[in-house]
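Worked problem 6 (solution included).
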Amino acid sequence: MAIERQKLTQRLLTAAVGSVVVVVCSLVGGIPFLLAMNLVILFGLVEFYRMMEAKGIRPYKTVGVAAGLGVSWYVYFQGGVFSSLFITLVLVTIMVLELRRRDGGLAVFHISSTILGVFYVAWLGSHIILLRQLGEQAPAGDLGGSFVILALALAWGTDTGAFFVGNAFGKRKLLPRVSPDKSVEGAWGGVATALGIAFLSKATFASYLTAVDALTLGLVSPAAAILGDLVESLMKRDVQVKDTSRALPGHGGMLDRFDSVLFVAPLVYYYLRFVVG
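Solution. The predicted structure is:
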């Protein structure tokens, strides 16, 4: 029990410090925000490629990390046609590099795992940057920080609600072949928490949301968060690792903390862009 309390204390302290850092960077915006996201993408890609190596696959880590960081910079500076050129060069470079390997085995896995890391971690993660930029263009003024905080609050709120409700009341397994610790009760706890956060956000810093918007995001975002969590659990189970790293005490690695965000951020971005407008 003492160990469990210690883990919970570490988890809460890490979450508190991390939340303050995220809120400050989101509100400041600009290059500091971009660099903060670069750290998330950098650690996330390193962890992802380590998982692939644990499976016996040898991705092109240097090229993949450079490409992932490059994607975030092109998104930030709105590279346009140059973004297409950049992605094309990355794809061709990774495939050509495989020609240098003498063994020739698992070529498809080496190439595809490198590319998957770029799109899974960097491209999905760069939607947080797109959210910040979308908010900067709002007629009511700079709402970029608000947009980012909304997405992160919905994702992490789902995680928190699922964690505590699942630990207290979880009995029925949600998807045991992928993640035996996750429960149906925990999932409903995540949905309830996200709904509360959506309406609380509407009443405080996200007045641009209608009641229908809050209800929709409060129901759809936790579904995306849970799917993002399960997808990462599927990959970790495949490579037989429990945490992607020990970078964040009580949470595991950067991917363990941002797996739900990688699915929620694109959802919130496209909803705000095309529905809320």
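Discussion: The mean pLDDT is 89.
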